[in-house]
Specification:
The chain has helices at residues 3-12, 49-68, 93-100, 103-113; strands spanning 15-17, 20-22, 24-29, 38-45, 72-80, 83-90, 119-125, 134-136, 143-145. The protein is of the alpha+beta class. It folds into 2 domains: 3-125, Alpha-Beta Plaits, CATH 3.30.70; 132-167. Strand 8 (134-136) and strand 9 form a beta hairpin.
């Protein structure tokens, strides 16, 4: 099965057990490896599959616009049934506002001007604390704090893998 097959399956037949529902998700990252200065969390509830498809079309254009904004870090997005969600990480709130002024503004006009979607919630969060990024040395298994992006293990001197992005 391809990833597209799993998405099609999740869209066609929601899977769940008890309170848990399963869907699909996607992560898109920029090349910006700076720590996030703010994050946006959203959810949006479609009323039927055609509305969900409309939301997904807007989302595709939004992500393309986000990737053009230098302060964009990454997005995790997806759907569970008819409920979509996003978590976006930004270097600054200003960068987020700049990106939201593109196609996202078109989608918002549609949301408020048309009979489009059942409900939506948006929010912007600023970090209270950003913890360290730890990477395991492949030679000696030491756990290295690589928040400063150093490239050699302090225990054995071996090269370290590239520091992962913060989000």
């Amino acid at each position: 099965m391809t990833p597209e097959d799993f998405v099609a399956l999740a869209l066609a037949e929601p899977i769940g057990t008890g309170r848990a529902e399963y869907g699909y998700s996607l992560r898109v990252a920029s090349d910006n490896r700076n720590p996030p200065g703010c994050m946006a969390l959203t959810w949006i509830a479609a009323r039927d599959p055609s509305e969900r498809d409309r939301i997904r079309e807007h989302a595709r254009q939004n992500v393309a616009d986000f990737l053009e904004e230098p302060g964009f870090l990454s997005i995790v997005t997806g759907f569970v049934g008819l409920r979509g969600f996003t978590v976006t990480a930004w270097e600054t709130e200003e960068a987020m506002k700049a990106a939201l002024g593109r196609h996202h503004a078109v989608a918002m006009r549609e949301l408020f001007g048309d009979d489009f979607v059942g409900s939506v919630w948006t929010s912007v969060w600023k970090p209270t604390r950003i913890n360290r990024i730890w990477v395991r040395c492949e030679r000696c298994a030491a756990l290295e704090d690589v928040s400063d992006d150093h490239r050699a293990c302090t225990a054995c001197g071996a090269g370290l893998p590239e520091r992962p992005a913060f989000w």
